[in-house]
Amino acid sequence: MRKKLLAALPWGIAALALAAAAVFAVLWQQGEARERERDEVRAAGERFVTALTNFSHETIVEDADRIRSFAVGRFEEEAGVFFGARAIEAIQDAEATSRGNIEALFVESIADDEASIFAVVSESITNSQATEPQTEIVRLHVEMVNVDDTWKVEMVEILQSPGSQPVLPGV
Questions:
Q1: Domains along the chain?
Q2: Model-level pTM greater than 0.85?
Q3: Mind listing the pLDDT tens digit for each residue in 103-122?
Q4: Residue 84 burial (CB count, 10 A)
């Protein structure tokens, strides 16, 4: 009996090692999938924040279309107002241009088909009434949802520095 146990021991150890390797492979794949999803959220967030903070009075119609292309839900309604005909006209009249540079962007959370990001952007705005560009740090909290395998923006909260005022008159 003891000989049989000793003969079976290497096979038992091999089976245990094979099972452990299979579990490790599954966990590795799940980790890779989560990392890919985090990378997708981060890339979509970067594209959106770049579009939101980079526009020109010369190309504002196309810029606004690009911003609205990210929008769903609550942000879709807000984007219709903030990048609607009246706002576009005000940006054109003011000859406003915005150049945003992402200083930092963090994926805060991902759960199911929802994600949130936080971005810090150095934004420089010029317009016909300003003698020099006005630069400020803008912080954004963005809620995103996955719609048909595409990350869309559902909510944007812009957190400006205390005491800062909108740079564009009438917007």
A1: 2-160 (3.10.450.230)
A2: no
A3: 999 999 999 899 999 999 99
A4: 13
